[in-house]
Design brief:
Largest sheet: 4 strands, antiparallel
Strand order of the largest sheet: 2-3-1-4
Shape: globular
Order of helices and strands: EHEEHEHEEHHHHHHHHH
Number of domains: 2
Distance between the termini: 66 Å
Number of helices: 12
Number of strands: 6
Radius of gyration: 21 Å
Length: about 350
């Protein structure tokens, strides 16, 4: 049988993690000889041997990735920007941000102080990450491990090991990054530059969550694909302490939010500070990812998901702008605005 090349448009692809997940799943399909996904073009090239029409092949492959929120088609996805969802998302986001500002004014919460990202902000960013970029692969890993062990009657322990590995891995590796930053003797100028980069990364991620400016996806920084691919492949291993090691390994997956926190941990120049920033961020991701492991929660499949993601995007953009403003205050360029 002749091997043919098929090019399909992928509906539902939104980040580098999606590329990894789609490629890893499709490689397991009988008849597939090669797979290469492209985020910017939102396509996947598949080499395979089938006695089917292209439409039938698209339907076959979709059956394997649909549970992860993707569909394959010969037709390009026509994205609806759904501006009307902002009429709900904007007031919710404003209420949420003003609530945090009020708590800060009362001295109960400090989101950003002296240009620094504090633990409350790191936790909030973790919450947002867990329903966006982290959900694609880390959620897929959690679900896969849960399903594999459920078949073997292993109960809840593998899931607990996975999430425990995430928390401990983020703590240890975050501390290592912080310590590494300290060895560079990063001064105020260096810290300011890293702070600006973190804010820009968050701003781009927030804009992408709005799902109306699709060109912004090209600006999103990603980790080398080979690192994330090797971690994703390990989800098939279900022996011994493998779930713990996979959980720790998610530190290296291409999640923009994780990378922004890693950059900040580096800028702290502190082993302890870096460790706890990454730990709190991982704790922020725990509620949603835990629900995926022990339940069936999936925000992306809900009818109100568009409003949810736009709200999250607006909150992330607000946090990024707060960070920029406070960096400008630290540099003495402007006077304190919010007194964070």
């Amino acid at each position: 049988m002749e091997t043919r090349k098929y090019i399909f448009h992928v509906h539902g692809m939104h980040c580098a993690s999606c590329v990894l997940l789609i490629e890893e799943i499709l490689r397991t399909v009988s008849g597939v000889k090669g797979v290469k996904a492209n985020l910017h073009a939102r396509i996947v090239e598949v080499m395979g041997e089938w006695e089917k029409t292209p439409d039938e092949v698209a339907e076959l492959l979709t059956s394997f990735v649909k549970k992860n929120g993707y569909t394959l088609s010969l037709e390009k996805e026509q994205k609806e920007k759904k501006w009307n969802e902002f009429s709900y998302a904007f007031p919710i986001a404003v209420f949420f941000v003003l609530g945090f500002v009020l708590l800060q004014k009362l001295g109960l919460v400090n989101m950003i102080a002296g240009g620094e990202i504090n633990y409350g902000t790191a936790f909030l960013i973790g919450l947002v990450a867990s329903v966006s970029t982290c959900l694609a692969v880390v959620g897929g890993l959690a679900l896969s491990l849960s399903a594999n062990y459920a078949k073997g009657g292993s109960g809840w322990k593998p899931q607990a090991l996975f999430h425990g590995g995430r928390l401990i891995g983020f703590f240890v590796l975050g501390g290592a990054i912080g310590f590494l930053g300290g060895s560079f003797h990063m001064g105020q100028t260096g810290s300011v530059i890293v702070g600006v980069v973190v804010a820009l990364v968050m701003l781009i991620l927030g804009i992408n969550l709005l799902d109306v400016f699709h060109g912004a996806k090209k600006l999103q920084f990603t980790m080398p694909k080979i690192i994330g691919r090797n971690i994703v492949k390990e989800r098939k291993l279900v022996n011994g302490i493998t779930p713990f090691l996979i959980g720790a390994g998610t530190f290296f997956l291409p999640c923009g939010f994780t990378q922004s926190m890693q950059l900040y941990a580096l800028s702290t120049g502190s082993l302890i500070r870096g460790a706890f920033i990454m730990l709190v961020f991982a704790l922020g991701t725990l509620p949603v990812l835990g629900a995926l492991s022990f339940g069936s929660a999936n925000v992306s499949e809900k009818s109100w998901s568009g409003i949810f993601f736009k709200t999250a995007g607006l909150v992330v953009i607000a946090l990024a702008l707060f960070n920029v403003i406070n960096i400008l205050v630290v540099m003495g360029i402007i006077n304190p605005v919010f007194n964070f």
